[in-house]
Amino acid sequence: MKIAAVQLHCSPDSADNLDRAATAIASAAQQGADLVVLPELFSSLGRASAMRDAAQPLDGTFRRWAGDQARVNHCALVAGSFVERNGEDLFNTSIAIDADGSLLGTYRKIHLFDVDVAGAETHESATFASGSSPLVLTIAGVRVGLTICYDLRFPELYRAETLDGADIILVPAAFTATTGRDHWEVLLRARAIENQAMLVAAAQWGTSPDGIERHGHSLIVDGWGRILAEAPTQGDTVLVAEFDASIQHDIRTRLPVSDHRRPDTYGPLR
Fold first, then answer.
1. What is the pLDDT of residues 8-26, one digit of tens each?
2. Which fold has domain 2-256?
3. 2 is catalytic
4. Is 40 a catalytic residue?
5. Which residue is catalytic, options 40, 124, 161, 230?
6. Where are the domains of the chain?
7. Is 149 a catalytic site residue?
8. Which residue of the set 109, 124, 161, 230 is catalytic?
9. Predicted TM-score (pTM) of this structure
10. HEC states along the chain?
11. Would 55 disulfide with which of 33, 85, 171, 261, CB 3.0-4.6 Å?
């Protein structure tokens, strides 16, 4: 199974963002990708008022665009995330689309980025409601877990998805440059090593319309923590790497971390 991570810069022009994303998906498909992953909020990341204006229901135009892209390019697609409107609530929602254009599942970002770090001041909870359910689904015969950006700092979520059978965990992101310089690669490789799972991280780069600089440096990391493909911190990029189930099975067999867990001794996690 070949997987592509697409790195993009989010401009104020949503139509242009979607056009560039479509070009990247086509490029990934031409390179043999069976699954393409786009960044977090790649079509609409901006100030809170702009994202509210961009919000749409799950069955809106973004969902139809993603279905068309998957169908035309004959590949599964995790369309990063978009601003989903559900009643009075907005969610940062990732959608997984099968190669025939059908919806496989949706994941609403669980952990919201409310921080006061200089250069990364963000209060997502002022705009978004939090999701409440991890998601692991089958894509092209492989069990795949979905997460979004700040979720990366919460190893419990990654362990839960691994225990639910995930062999690959996806990380659409718009990680800030301020935090990404020191934390991004370290966290990705740590989550991969801890869970002996491939991590596919598709990131935004450049200064986004909300005025925050994004880190870029998209990565595909295997279950041993080895970097299979990586993008620079700047520039639209398409990364493609192969998931080899036999290699991952060998890693988990020779170093059977999951069999050595002792949850009975850890006490309640609060």
1. 999 989 999 999 999 999 9
2. Nitrilase/N-carbamoyl-D-aminoacid amidohydrolase (3.60.110)
3. no
4. yes
5. 40
6. 2-256
7. yes
8. 109
9. 0.97
10. CEEEEEEECCCCCHHHHHHHHHHHHHHHHHCCCCEEECCCCCCCCCCHHHHHHHCECCCCHHHHHHHHHHHHHCCEEECCCEEEEECCEEEEEEEEECCCCCEEEEEECCCCCEECCCCCCEEHHHCCCCCCCCEEEEECCEEEEECCHHHHHCHHHHHHHHHCCCCEEEEEECCEHHHHHHHHHHHHHHHHHHHCCEEEEEEEEEECCCCCEEECCCEEECCCCCEEEECCCCCCEEEEEECCHHHHHHHHHHCCHHHHCCHHHHCCCC
11. 85
